[in-house]
Amino acid sequence: MANTATLGAAPEAEDSPATPEKPKGNHRAGELRSCDTTGLPICLVAQQFIRLNAVMAVVFLLVGGISALLLALTRWPAVHLLSAAWYYRILTLHGLNMLIFWILFMEVAILYFASTTLLNSRLAWKSMAYVSFGMMLVGAVMVDYFVLAGKADVLMTSYAPMQGHPGFYLGIILVAVGTLIAVGNFFATLYIAKRDKTYVGSMPLVTFGALAAAIIAVVTLAHGAAVMIPTFLWSLGLVGAPDPAWYRLIWWGLGHMSQQVNVCAMVSVWYFLATLTVGAKPINQAVCRGAFILYILFINLASAHHLLVDPGVGAGWKIWNTSYAMYLAVLASMIHGFTVPASVEVAMRKKGHNSGLFSWLAAAPWKNPGFSAFFLSLVIFGFGGGITGVTLGTEQINIIAHNTLRIPGHFHMTVVGGTSLAFMGLAYYVVPLLFQREYYARGLVRAQPYVFAAGISIMAIGMSLAGSYGVPRRHWDVEFAGAQFSAGFDPSAHVMLGIMGIGGTIAFVGLLMFILLTVAAVFFGKSNAGKAMTAW
Amino acid sequence: MSISTPAEGWFKAPSGGERAWIGLALLWCVVLTLAMPYWHYKGKQNSTGESYRVEPAAFQARVDRFVKTNGVGEEKGVAIVEPSPGGDAYLLAQMWRFSPILKLRKGQSYRLHMSSLDLQHGFSVQPVNLNFQILPGYDHVITITPTMSGVFNVICNEFCGIGHHTMTGKIIVED
Amino acid sequence: MTESKEEKVVDIVHSEAVDDPADHHAPGTFVLVLVLLGTFAVYYFANWKALADVWHVR
Q1: Which of C4, C42, B33, B126 is nearest to A466 (CA)?
Q2: ipTM score here?
Q3: I want to staple C26 with a disulfide (CB 3.0 to 4.6 A). Which of A342, A431, B92, C3 is the partner?
Q4: Binding partners of B (≥3 Cβ pairs within 8 A)
Q5: Is any Cβ of chain C less than 8 angstroms from the Cβ of A391?
Q6: Chain A partners of C8 at a C-beta cutoff of 8 Å?
C-alpha cells in the first residue's frame, strides 16, 4: 500500500514545506489505529461511538422510512391506505424519527469524527459519550413508544394547547440533553486537541463546518429546553398552559434553527466527500469559512418563517426577521453553492479534464456512490430546496403557501434530498473505513443515490404543485368526507398527489436499498482490516 | 484539502469568478430584502399581524352579538351573517367547525376577526388559496377585500385533532 | 470490477498538487450558478405574480 503516513501523524498540511517535527497525537495506548486506506489516525474510542450512533441512526431511518411509505400511500387519493387516526399517528412518528433521530444520531457521529481523526486527537470523554448515547437512545425509544401507543397524536410540533403524554415530552428532553452532552464532548475534544497541540495552524475546513453546526446546535437545544421543559411540566399538571404564540416562536427556534445545524453538517459532508472522491480543494478557504460564520450569525430568527401569517407579531417584526437574518444566511448557502462545485471543477481540470465548460463534470466519477450522492444532494438542495425555501419564506408570499403541501415539498428537498442523501453518500465511506467492512452488490450501491434522488425529487415536485392548488399539509382527506360543508380541490391537485405518491414509493425503494445494503455490509460484509478499502 | 489544516496564508480576499459570484449573490440578497418593504407599501396582499388578546368566552360573546345583529339566515344549523361593508366581521374556529357563514360583497373591505375556542387552527380560503393562522387567546384581525364573487370554502390547515380534515366553513361573495 | 481505472481514496487524499493561482478558474461552475440565479429569479417573481391575484388583505 502506497501509504507513507505514520501512526499518529497529523493529516499532512497542504502546500507547506515539510516541517522538521510533525505534531504528535494525544491518544492513549491501545486507543489508536492508522486508517489502512488513508493513513489518517483513528481514535478507537471515537470509532466505537461513531459506529454505535451510525447504527442507531439507520435503525431510526428505517422506522421513519416505513412511516414515509405509509404516509405517501395515504395521501395518494387513489390508495388512501391508513385510517385517519393512524395517519396522524404515523405522521408524528415519521417527523420525529427522520428529522430528529436519524439526523441527530448521524450528526453526533460526524462531530466525533471531525474532532478526532481530522485533528489527530482522542475523544475527550469516553464516559460522557456513553451517557449521551444512552440518553438519546432511551429518549428516542420513549418518544416512539408513546406515539405508537396512541398517547401523543400531536404531530412533531405538538402545538400547545394540544397536549401529549408527559413521557413524550420527557423523551424529547432526554434526546435534546443527550445531544447537548455529545456537543459538549465535541467542544472538549477541540479543547484538548488545541491544548495538546495535536495539529498546527487552523483546524481543517470540515472540522470548522462541524464547529459551526455545533455552535448553532447549542442555541437550538437551548430553545428546545426553554419550550419543552415548561410544556412537560404543564403536561404533568404542575404549571399552566404555555401561550400558543410564545410556544410557536420558541418551538421554531428549535425546529427551524435545527435545520441550519443540518445545513452546516451537510455542507461539511459535501466538502468531505468532494475531497475523498475527487481530491477537491476549496479555492479560497477564507470564503468557505466566512460563509459558515454567516450561518452562525444570521440564522437565529429563522423561526420567523413559520410565523409570517400569525397574530401576535407585526409586519415590521416579520419583514425584519425575514430579510435581515435570512438573506445573509441565504448568501452563505449561495457562496457554498459556488465554492463546492468549483473545488470539484478545479480538481478535475487538474486531472486533465480541461476542455470546454463542462468536460470536468462529464468526467466526474458518477459511478462512485459517494460522489453521486454528494453532487445530487448539492443540486437538489440548491435548485429545489433553496429556491423554494427563500420564496416561501418571503413575508407576503407566505400568504399563498402557509401550511400547504408546498412547505413539506420544500423541506423534503432540503433535508431529505439534501442532508439525508449527503449522509447516505457519507455512509459509503464510513462503512469501509470505520466499520472496515466492504459493501456487497456494488452495482446496486452505485444505483442507489440515483433511485433515491429521483424518487424524492418527483415526490417533492408533486407535493409543491399540489400545494400550489391549496392542498394543506398534515391533512388526511382532500375529499373532506363527512365535513359539514363540502370542500375539495381542482382535479389537477389529485394528479399531483398521485405523482407525490409514485415519487414517494420510488424514494422508499431507494431508502430500502440503502438500508439493506448498509446493514448487509456492516454485519455480514467482508472485513478489509489491514488493507485499503476497495475503491468505488 | 478540506480535511487537513490549511496552509499558512489561507486567509485572503476572494478573487476572480468567486469574487464576482459573491457580488452577484449579495446583490440578489439586496433585491430580496427590498421586495418585502416595497410590497408592504405598494402591494395589496400583506400580513400585518394585527391582533389583540381575547379570552375565548369573550370572543364567543362578540361572535354571538355579531350573529344576532347581522344574521340573515341559516344553513345546516350554521348562521349566515352579512356584515356591513367596511365593518367588523367575526369567524370563530373550534374543533371541528368554522362559524358563522360569511356573506360578503365583492370589492368591499371587512375587518375580519378570527380566534379559536380551543386549539390552534388554520384559516385557508379555497380555491383562492389565502392562508392565515388562528390562535386561541388572540383576536387576529385581517382587513380583507374579496376580488371575485362565488362560494368559497374555508378549510382548517392546522392540525387540530382527529377530526381536523372535516373542519370546513363557507364564505359567500356576491357581486 | 475494473479497479485499475478507479482512483484509490489514499491516492486522492494524499495527492497534493502545487497551489497555482492560475488553476483557480472555474468557468463551468460560474455558468452553473448563473443558471441557478436565473431559475431562482423566475420562480421568485412568478410567486409574487401569483400572490397579486388573490384577495386583497392587510
Answers
A1: B126
A2: 0.96
A3: A342
A4: A, C
A5: yes
A6: 37, 532, 535
